[in-house]
User: What shape does this take?
Amino acid sequence: MLKTLVATSLLQIAVYNFIEVPWAPHISSAYTDYTSFLEAKTYGVQESYFKGSLVHTPPLVVEAMAWLPDLGVFSVLLGVRLITAFYLFRITQSRLAVALYMLDPSLSRLNLSTFTQFAVLLFSYYSLVRRRTRAALCLSLLCYLDPSYLPLATLYYFKNFTKTVYLTGSLLSLALYGASYYLTGSWEFLHSCQLSVLFSQDLRPNLGLSWYLLLEMFQKYQSFYRAVLVVHPWLYIYTIRYLLLKYQRTCNYSQAGKLYLAVMYCVCVVCHPSPMLGDYILGAVLMFPHAEIILRVPSAFLTVTGFLVGQVLSLVMWGMWGTRIGGNANFLFFQLILVNTMCFGFLFGLLQQVKQDIEEVSVT
Assistant: This one.
């Protein structure tokens, strides 16, 4: 795996230094974009700055890296990505998964989503290996950076964690929020950062669906759409948990916890207010340990092909819209409907195959 990490790191360094990657919703997010961090770094963390601001970088992240030049920020992000890749390998046991994750082009634009993926992977790993204190620490970091991924906290179901994980994680989260209040002098950062992410306040175009559904033309239904997008991932938890635990007992499948992680992460990405290509890549590589099941899913080829075609067409439609050579938001949104529908179609087919396996074993 060391060779994979070295090769992909050198490639990322070369791209950062010699290739100017243009802004696109596939590799940039309104909530983790580096320009947001630069504005916060320039003006400093204070009440008047976060009040009514489009800057969504949490105050502690700004303070921790405010003294770093751009090259220093890139070095930190690359280091964090390498650590994340190491834990990804421990979960998936796949060099290809690590290589695909490391090749995410968002790093060349210094996108801060690397920190969120770091919190997701470390919380997942420590949950799977029953390290409660470390899992609680990573959970608090995830809650601070991006609360829209909190449905992943239910991963403890598969390891019989006590309420201590939630209690400790909540207390540590309060400590992070308290430190941010101390830095800024008010709670305005909540509206600009965490609540803005959770309730899709920033409507800059991205690979999700919320930015279009919450446009002014749909103002009458904005509250409904926001409620649906926030609640939606939580609606699947009990059903998926029940099905996969039954699969674990009936078919002696030892990877049920990892499968739950992969499925719920993909659900969170589809419902996220501003997902990027790297988030979809991470969801895909988390599926690698379950290739044996996926290869038996009848609709897998169709849904994966549709997803890839949708991603390519969305990039084309974004280019047409951005350069004004013939295209608009509707063309882009239609491709995003295809992308996210194929994601849910893939997950549905996967869970249908799991259910079918349970029924076949029960009959025999």
Q: What stands out?
A: The longest helix spans residues 329-363. The CA atoms of residues 86 and 98 lie 8 Å apart. DSSP finds 19 helices and no strands in the chain.
